[in-house]
Design brief:
This protein is of the alpha/beta class. 45% of the residues lie in helices and 16% in strands. The protein has one domain: Luciferase-like domain (TIM Barrel, Alpha-Beta Barrel), CATH 3.20.20. InterPro entries: Bact_Lucif_Oxidored, Luciferase-like_dom, Luciferase-like_sf.
């Protein structure tokens, strides 16, 4: 198993100044490398305290690359629908070169109606724009004198500069939330998978992973090349009571920020987002105790978290786990303690 940190901001200006958030996040990146974590990951979101401090993960990861030398840098994820493919491919290729080939590129569809409205893009175009955007970026990385004739973008002949450091291109991952067909599509294309187990039942996550693996096998791909990332809110303390108390507080903080961001789904419908009409109710009814009972959060003492990770491995296999250590406006010292305890007492059990 491999472990990294997912720096998902759930704060806004009334909670923490942006400069302070980025200083703290970069300090956590340096600590994660010192403790031999596999990766650092961050998101693309806009406007809300839920992720809004990270409108461009490439910018943050470039700063992280300058402060580190080994840790992998993962976009989790960039949104092709919101950026022209030439711009997106060029930014990512620059980062891959700046980091000497440490980049993994996660692509996502996005799911917040307010973001689509601001960019003037219909929600119903999300899937075709995603598919076209990923295809265009991949071709720009690998093709000289590319002529691209898509539904939304037409250009060429062009040759991207710079080309990526990794050849033929950086590893590609695809974010999927609740749709098994999306997981299977990622497998068939040889991509990795980004999942958030907290929003699904264990059986649903197992179904999605099984579909991903089956599609890879049907495509004749080596099982050793699979790349499945699962993100979990994480809070560790040597004191179990403190871990549960603060883990609950930051989990509820994050959930409240998510509820603000998804509120538009209360009056929004899209054929491209089946089931999302229920998301407000699901987020509203989220319960920390149930989440902990169902092993959807890595909260507790180091020994307890070892047991939780062992269970995750039994359920899903040797996956890659991303620790969301900034799941609320917690002090930097608490995030550092969580990373240090995990790195020193949990990670070695699974390396």
């Amino acid at each position: 198993m491999r472990f990294g940190i997912n720096l998902f901001p759930t704060v806004g200006p009334s909670d923490k100044a942006a400069v302070e958030y980025f200083d703290d996040a970069l300090a956590l990146v340096e600590l994660a490398e010192q403790l031999d974590f596999h990766h650092v990951k961050t998101v693309e979101h806009y406007f809300f305290a839920y992720g809004g401090y990270s409108p461009d993960p490439v910018t943050f990861l470039a700063a992280a690359a300058a402060r580190t030398s080994r840790i992998r840098l993962i976009t989790g994820a960039v949104i092709p629908a919101f950026t022209h493919p030439i711009k997106l491919a060029g930014k990512l290729a620059m980062l891959d070169n700046i980091s000497h080939g440490r980049l993994d590129v996660g692509f996502g569809r996005a799911f917040l109606p307010d973001e689509f409205a601001a960019f003037g893009i219909p929600l119903d175009e999300s899937r075709p724009r995603f598919d076209e955007g990923v295809s265009a970026v991949r071709q720009l990385w690998t093709t000289t004198d590319l002529v691209f004739d898509g539904q939304f973008h037409r250009f060429g002949p062009v040759t991207l500069l710079p080309l990526t450091y990794q050849r033929p291109h950086p590893p590609i991952l695809v974010a999927t939330a609740i749709t098994p067909s999306s997981a299977a599509s990622a497998g068939a294309n040889g991509y990795g998978l980004l999942l958030v187990p907290s929003i699904n039942k264990r059986e649903k996550v197992q179904e999605m992973i099984a579909g991903y693996r089956a599609a890879r096998a049907a495509a004749g791909l080596d099982p050793a090349g699979e790349d499945i990332h699962l993100s979990y809110n994480c809070y560790l303390s040597e004191d179990a009571g403190e871990a549960y108390r603060n883990g609950r507080r930051y989990s509820e903080w994050t959930n409240a920020r998510l509820l603000e961001a998804v509120s538009a789904w209360g009056v929004t419908r899209s054929s491209g987002y089946e089931g999302y009409e229920n998301i407000v109710q699901k987020v509203s009814s989220a319960d920390f105790d149930s989440s902990l009972r169902d092993n959807k959060a890595l909260v507790g003492t180091p020994a307890e978290v070892v047991d939780r990770v062992t269970t995750i491995r039994d359920w899903f296999g040797d996956v890659t786990i991303s620790l969301q250590v900034v799941s609320g406006n917690m002090p930097l010292s608490e995030s550092q303690r969580t990373i240090r305890l995990f790195g020193e007492q949990v990670l070695p059990k699974f390396s």
